[in-house]
Amino acid sequence: MAVSLGGSFGAVAETTSKAPDFLKHTYAERPEACAADQYGERKGLQISDGSISGTEFGCAFLTYTPVSWGPGHDVNEYVVLVSCGDDSGITRPDHLSIIHSNGELRVQSQNEYVEMLAKEAWNEPGFVSKTYKKCPG
Question: Is the pTM of this model over 0.85?
């Protein structure tokens, strides 16, 4: 589906299930989340090809809609439809805005319940409006 925001606000291109190339890398809010410990666990949230994941919480990326801010501008922003859940097995839909710039991702959630699930999993703020840095490798 193609949607035009019109005017100076930008235009949205075709929605796709193919992840943008920058998501072939792994990103984390903190460096210690880049590598797993001896039990295969990571500290905090990690973003990689097709998901945000952490201990007992995750979001699967379903579709990506690139946002272009006019002819000749690079696409570095996507609206992503996701399905998020925790170890209870209950899932919730969400829309994320993901902006890629200088090896970082800025992620903005639209679902306060999903944010609460992420926060409860680690007893710290979840992923609404967070910046994730590209992991080494």
Answer: no
